[in-house]
Design goal:
The chain has 99 residues and is of the alpha+beta class. Helix 2 crosses helix 4. Helix 2 links the parallel strand 1 and strand 2. Strands 2-1-3-4 form a four-stranded mixed β-sheet, with helices on one face. The chain has one domain: Glutaredoxin (3-Layer(aba) Sandwich).
Length: 99
């Protein structure tokens, strides 16, 4: 995943990365919200889920201390990040502001 990850976030369109864990309740709440946001934004965004337990090095590299943590990348640059559950309208607003 790691070598692939740097390629994924180099995309010229926004890439929202969801650092999550299977045991995390709020992560489960966030999953359908992200699905709805993706449905609304379509090809305008790429949403990638990273399991922190399976990708500890990657989570460490981006200093993910809590899950869920969302990080928005574009052209390999980190534009925004926030931990916790975020509502769909807020996610869409943030992604559109960086499109």
């Amino acid at each position: 995943m790691k070598s692939n990850f740097s390629e994924i976030i180099k995309d010229s369109k926004p890439v929202l990365v969801d650092f999550h864990a299977d045991w995390c309740g709020p992560c489960k709440m966030l999953a359908p919200i992200l699905k709805d946001a993706k449905a609304e934004l379509g090809d305008g965004v790429k949403i990638v889920k990273i399991d922190v337990d399976k990708n500890e090095a990657l989570a460490g590299k981006y200093q993910v201390r809590g899950v869920p943590t969302l990080i928005l990348f574009k052209n390999g640059e980190q534009l925004w990040r926030q931990s916790g559950v975020i509502q769909k309208d807020e996610i869409i607003r943030i992604i559109k502001s960086h499109s």
